[in-house]
Write a structure and sequence with these properties.
Helix content: 40-55%
Number of strands: 0
Distance between the termini: 28 Å
Radius of gyration: 15 Å
Structural class: mainly alpha
Number of helices: 5
Order of helices and strands: HHHHH
Shape: globular
Oligomer: single chain
Strand content: under 5%
Amino acid sequence: MTPLKAIRKFCIRCVGNAASVNKCGGDKMLGQGDPKGQCWFYPYRMGRGRPSVKIIRKNCLECMGGSRKLVADCGPFGDCPLHIFRFGTNPNRIRETVKNMIEEAA
C-alpha cells in the first residue's frame, strides 16, 4: 500500500463512506489535525497528490498523545491503514533500496 492509498482509506473511515470524502471540508479529523483545526490529509483525501509520510507521522504522534514510545509500540488498532507509515518512513522504499543494493552487490 502507498501512503496516498493509506490516507484515502483513513479519510473514508473518518467520514464514514467514500461518497462523503468529497464533501469533507477538512475541518475535522477523527479528533485530530493541526492546531488550526484543519485536517493534515485534506489535500490528499481524493487519492491525488504526493503526501509526505512525515504527515502520517504527525498524525500518529498526536493519536498517541505525543509519545514516541507509544507510536513504536502501537499495534494496528482497528486495522489502521496508516500503521505501516507510523515512523514517518515508507517501508516500500526501504525494500526497494535493499533490493537494489543486493542486485548491485551480485
